[in-house]
Specification:
The complex is a heterodimer.
Chain A: E1 5-7, E2 10-13, E3 19-24, E4 31-38, E5 42-50, E6 53-57, E7 64-68, E8 74-78, E9 87-94, E10 102-103, E11 107-111
Parallel strand pairs in A: 2-11
Antiparallel strand pairs in A: 1-3, 3-8, 4-5, 4-9, 5-6, 7-8, 9-10, 9-11
Chain B: E1 5-7, E2 10-14, E3 19-24, E4 31-37, E5 43-50, E6 55-58, E7 61-66, E8 71-76, E9 85-91, E10 97-98, E11 102-107
Parallel strand pairs in B: 2-11
Antiparallel strand pairs in B: 1-3, 3-8, 4-5, 4-9, 6-7, 7-8, 9-10, 9-11
Classes of the chains: A mainly beta, B mainly beta.
């Protein structure tokens, strides 16, 4: 059974640009969550989707957005990139929000 | 905001020794989870303990939960080099709140 797949694995952007990250959950999983991991702030919750609906959102500015498609795949978008957005972005999926989450290996985003 | 806080921040042990790390949290929980993260990889779920459970075992892992003290501990017995990783506790099912983690180094 394939795990959570995140693409791309690495990305380099410059300030002011926008970026879209993709996450394919484990087959049968309908809940997808996104996290940002930085050395200074640790792991921080971005948002959670279940059956194409955003159920929860973390304390991030509106530049961070996401969506989930009918096949449960999810994307997150960050607009007007700032240097502080450099981080490892992790996606996690589960069958439903009550189950433990399975993480992908993340997308490492570097902002120059 | 971070709900769980792990202690110590870092731990270095010899292969075969036991490793113990603690987690404290702030509010009431339904369950607490422990995850492991190897360098440059995603997190791997290790164990979930519910608020009405006091202890749980999974292989070489033993987790305890004390809801009166709002704390949990993770014990790894007979450690191996492959246990070298960062360990995180997380609370809350819908939006996991992680601590800063405990970095465990197992020396051969």
């Amino acid at each position: 059974k394939a795990g959570v797949t995140q693409t791309p694995r690495y990305l380099i952007k410059t300030r002011g640009q926008q970026v879209t990250l993709s996450c394919s959950p484990i087959s049968g999983h309908r809940s997808v969550s996104w996290y940002q991991q930085t050395p200074g702030q640790g792991l921080q919750f971005l948002f959670e989707y279940f059956s194409e609906t955003q159920r929860n959102k973390g304390n991030f500015p509106g530049r961070f957005s996401g969506r989930q498609f009918s096949n449960s795949r999810s994307e997150m978008n960050v607009s007007t990139l700032e240097l502080g957005d450099s981080a490892l972005y992790l996606c996690a999926s589960s069958r439903d929000p009550n189950q433990p989450q399975h993480f992908g290996d993340g997308t490492r985003l570097s902002i120059l | 905001s971070q709900q769980g806080e792990e202690d110590p921040q870092a731990l270095s042990i010899q292969e075969g020794e036991n490793a113990t790390m603690n987690c404290s949290y702030k509010t009431s929980i339904n369950n607490l989870q422990w995850y492991r993260q190897n360098s440059g990889r995603g997190l791997v779920h290790l164990i979930l303990i519910r608020s009405n459970e006091r202890e749980k075992h999974s292989g070489r892992l033993r987790v305890t939960l004390d809801t009166s003290k709002k704390s949990s501990s993770l014990l790894i017995t007979a450690s191996r080099a492959a246990d070298t990783a960062s360990y995180f506790c997380a609370t809350d099912e819908y939006k996991l709140s992680f601590g800063a983690g405990t970095t465990v180094t197992v020396r051969a």
